[in-house]
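Async update (no meeting this week)

Hi team, since we skipped the sync, here's where things stand on the single-chain job. The sequence we agreed to prioritize is pasted below, unchanged from the tracker. I ran it this morning and attached the output directly underneath so nobody has to dig for it. Comments welcome in thread, and please keep replies under the output.
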Amino acid sequence: MLILDDDNYVEKYIDIYTNRERYNNMKISLCGKYEIFDNGENTYYYVTRYGIGVCALHEYEYMGFELQIKNPPDIEEQSWVRVEGYIECYLENGVEFLRIADAQISIEDSPEIVYVH
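Output:
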């Protein structure tokens, strides 16, 4: 299982998005903030982290993964969660995306420092 933690999150996040085929169907575990986005047609679920900014335009970078959840949990948005599932590449409207499929979510205690580097 690939575990993303505070020390390797940014490095692994970039590698996953750069080398999708290498990580497709790999089991993954990570923590972050639980977020929900509803565009009126679809509801999307995410686990996100903030990284220290790499350019003068941003103080931080927003990084995360979409979650495929069969039965969305009754978890308050912005809660700190642990997610386990499988990295999956999929097409939507001709565009390739990544998500964590079959995501299992549990609430965790929020850390003192939520930024990763």
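Quick observations from my side:
The CA atoms of residues 3 and 84 lie 9 Å apart.
The chain has a mean pLDDT of 90.
Reply here if anything looks off.
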